[in-house]
Amino acid sequence: MADEVALDLEELRQLQSIAKRPRVVSLISSEIQNLEKLSKEAASAPASQIPTPISTAPKVLSSPAVNYVTLGSFSWDQDDDKVKIYISLEGVEQEKIETEFKPISFDVKFYDVQGKNYRCAIPKLNKEIVPEKCKVVVKPTRVTIILFKASKGNWLDLQFKDDKLKPNLEKERDPMAGIMDLMKNMYEEGDEEMKRTIAKAWTDARSGKTADPLKGYR
Known about the structure:
- This protein is of the alpha+beta class.
- Helix content is 34%, strand content 22%.
- The protein is built from five helices and eight strands, in the order ααββββββββααα.
- The strands form two sheets. The protein has a four-stranded mixed β-sheet, with no helix packed on it. A four-stranded antiparallel β-sheet has the order 2-3-8-7, with no helix packed on it.
- The chain starts with a helix and ends in an 11-residue tail after the last helix.
- May be involved in calcium-dependent ubiquitination and subsequent proteasomal degradation of target proteins. Probably serves as a molecular bridge in ubiquitin E3 complexes. Participates in the ubiquitin-mediated degradation of beta-catenin (CTNNB1).
């Protein structure tokens, strides 16, 4: 604002210097006095009284977190080339689907399905797929996720499962080693009572009280 007043004063003084008629000179002089007074007041005013410019930039609203209903119940089948996952879900719109296919996983999200958001994801598939060929087919009461296999063949399961109970060749030669592996897995995955029972059986077996460490709970 101060810059504008200074420019106005400069221009009025130039006009005053070339004005000839007394009335015009008087009007210009009066306006110059008003602007000089305004300029002095602006210069002496505290910073807190100077109006702060109002920002007209649009406010960015943070989007709320999206909640999903997990689709854990579905059926599937396969052939040599692909796997089909069938989900019973009515009211899905193709343009409201978000897909993320990776070589060993997939994540499919369904938005605004009768007021809810749904999600079907498998973080680690049994075998690799071809992401760019995978797709989702929508029908009135069902959705089909089609996964194309990276290599032909049969999948024993849809999800990858690490078979902890499968012994290696060396342990197959030693029956006792297989039993010990079984006990270790049962101990890791069992409840507190199971752990106490196995620990006691293990201690008894080492002390020679029993030759069979599984005796008593097998």
